[in-house]
């Protein structure tokens, strides 16, 4: 089954990660030029290499991509230098989720790299890697340690949550009578959400009276939910009564 | 009591922060070479300095490390330049949590820095600093304003939360009979979690009949929780009965 990078996030292209290298040939051969398919005017003397190029040629060189939020890394793509015959022929991958302990992908085994300047060589990880930081360690190369690269991750959702409490009060329409009775208590979020949130609104205090059939009926619902707030609707129905209800809400946006 | 860096995150080494400097001597003397113990060929004319080096030598220079996610900064290490006799002999620290208001650590008092090229001088903050951005401001130096450094933070956790709603059947198995009775409703999370979440499951509607002893018994429980789903189990027991229960769930992970 062939895999695809369609729908995945390109980390370097989207400026979503910080890049650190072991060494750079000089400022014009840095990680600034390492994104896949990077091309400039091909005059290295002025605007630099079409690749990250290390300054020391040994197997201690690496480029680290770091994200502050954990990501699910699906694939890595490698390419040679665009303006000279230099490329990495094999490499290994290391990664860390907690940024304290680092792990070796495939126990440090070599992954096949490039054989020319421009062909993109994409490696799909055996299973997606959950990490914050990930590093390419070149193991063998043609002429020089130079590469362009990209990391592909699943899209990330960020959660923003606010929690609060709302009280029906006592002496409300729920206290007497019969049929559908409710009391509406407006709630304003401490901070306005960037879009309409999902709300969990649940009872943490119930003081109610069962009717002549021993039937207890209480509920609370959020209505008219906007980015700024909602109405907490406390209710009872039929012949039941409620003296006081208190609810907690948890509102979350994923984007 | 001696303090330890064990278990802390090394921010620069893990590419977890963005770095901005007041000035750089040139493109080969930048923050890209500023991580603790940074080494290259030792020929600075070729691949740059083993340090960040400012271009203006006065007490207005600084290097800022910025993270999008707030972190608890425990310590800072400072080191001289590896390929020339230049080091910062004292510095102060400034920091901000909201990236609007900046604060002076120890009211701007000088912290002892380096006295040679390579000895690592570590300062543990009086109490850990909660911040998104932290800046080193060199106050005195030998030779030049040049340094290598590292910032140590407690590991950061990211929260991912989803919310949903679930209900029992109406007038179902819970509304007849006696003894322990339950209704199982499978729930699939909109987005699969990266690991098994904690699930909070609470009522927002209770329509129940007390038994002959006026006993109301209702329970809802999350069972068989996986990263993709869980079972919502509504229960009653003994002689109580339940016409309808509705619940909201909140599922959350920290990683």
From TrEMBL, chain A:
Keyword Lipid metabolism attributed: no
Pfam families in alphabetical order: F5_F8_type_C, H_lectin
Alphabetized GO MF terms: N-acetylgalactosamine binding; oligosaccharide binding; polysaccharide binding
InterPro entries: FA58C, Galactose-bd-like_sf, Galactose-binding_lectin, H-type_lectin_dom_sf, H-type_lectin_domain
Domain of life: Eukaryota
SMART domains: FA58C
Keywords for this protein: Cell adhesion, Lectin
A Gene Ontology BP annotation from the UniProt entry: cell-cell adhesion
Domain F5/8 type C: 4-154
GO cellular component: cell surface; cytoplasm; protein complex involved in cell adhesion
Record's protein name: F5/8 type C domain-containing protein
From TrEMBL, chain B:
Originating organism: Dictyostelium purpureum (Slime mold)
Entry-linked InterPro entries: FA58C, Galactose-bd-like_sf, Galactose-binding_lectin, H-type_lectin_dom_sf, H-type_lectin_domain
S-adenosyl-L-methionine listed as a keyword: no
UniProt name for this protein: F5/8 type C domain-containing protein
One of the record's GO cellular component terms: protein complex involved in cell adhesion
GO biological process assignments: cell-cell adhesion; cytoskeleton organization
Transmembrane residue ranges: none
Keyword Membrane: no
Protein keywords: Cell adhesion, Lectin
Domain F5/8 type C: 1-154
PROSITE patterns reported for this sequence: FA58C_1, FA58C_3
Example of a GO MF term: oligosaccharide binding
């Amino acid at each position: 089954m062939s895999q695809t990078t369609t729908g995945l996030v390109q980390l370097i292209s989207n400026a979503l990660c910080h890049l650190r290298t072991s060494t750079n040939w000089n400022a014009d051969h840095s990680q600034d030029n390492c994104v896949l398919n990077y091309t400039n005017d091909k005059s290295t003397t002025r605007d630099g290499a079409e690749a990250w190029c290390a300054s020391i040629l040994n197997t201690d060189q690496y480029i680290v991509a770091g994200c502050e939020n954990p990501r699910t890394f699906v694939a890595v793509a490698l390419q040679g230098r665009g303006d000279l015959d230099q490329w990495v022929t094999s490499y290994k991958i290391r990664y860390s989720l907690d940024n304290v302990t680092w792990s070796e992908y495939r126990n440090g085994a070599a992954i096949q790299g490039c054989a020319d300047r421009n062909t993109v060589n994409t490696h799909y990880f055996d299973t997606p890697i959950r990490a914050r930081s990930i590093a390419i360690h070149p193991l063998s190369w043609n002429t020089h340690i130079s590469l362009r690269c990209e990391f592909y991750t699943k899209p990330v959702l960020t959660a923003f949550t606010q929690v609060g409490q709302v009280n029906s009060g006592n002496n409300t329409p729920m206290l007497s009578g019969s049929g559908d009775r409710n009391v509406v208590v407006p709630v304003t979020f401490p901070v306005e959400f960037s879009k309409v949130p999902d709300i969990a609104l649940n009872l943490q205090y119930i003081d109610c009276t069962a009717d002549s059939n021993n039937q207890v009926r209480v509920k609370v619902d959020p209505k008219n939910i906007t980015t700024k707030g909602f109405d907490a609707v406390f209710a009872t129905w039929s012949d039941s009564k409620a003296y006081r209800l208190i609810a907690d809400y948890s509102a979350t946006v994923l984007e | 009591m001696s303090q330890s860096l064990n278990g802390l995150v090394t921010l620069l080494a893990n590419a977890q922060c963005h770095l901005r400097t007041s000035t750089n001597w040139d493109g080969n003397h930048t923050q890209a070479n500023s991580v603790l113990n940074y080494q290259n060929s030792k020929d600075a004319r070729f691949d740059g300095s083993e340090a960040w080096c400012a271009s203006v030598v006065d007490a207005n220079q600084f290097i800022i490390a910025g993270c999008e996610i707030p972190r608890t900064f425990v310590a800072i290490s400072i080191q001289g330049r590896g390929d020339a006799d230049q080091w910062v002999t004292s510095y102060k620290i400034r920091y901000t949590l909201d990236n609007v208001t900046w604060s002076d650590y120890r009211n701007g008092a000088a912290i002892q820095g380096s006295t040679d090229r390579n000895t690592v001088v570590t300062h543990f903050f009086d109490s850990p600093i909660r911040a998104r951005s932290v800046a080193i401001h060199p106050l005195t130096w030998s030779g030049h304003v040049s340094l290598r450094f590292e910032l140590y933070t407690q590991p950061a956790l990211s929260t991912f939360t989803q919310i949903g709603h679930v209900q029992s059947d109406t007038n179902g198995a819970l509304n007849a009979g006696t003894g322990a009775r339950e209704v199982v409703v499978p729930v699939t999370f909109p987005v699969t979690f990266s690991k098994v979440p904690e699930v909070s499951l609470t009522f927002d509607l209770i329509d129940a009949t007390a038994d002959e002893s006026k006993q109301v018994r209702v329970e809802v429980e999350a069972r068989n929780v996986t990263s993709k789903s869980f079972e919502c189990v509504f229960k009653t027991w003994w002689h109580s009965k339940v016409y309808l229960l509705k619940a909201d769930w909140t599922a959350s992970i920290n990683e």
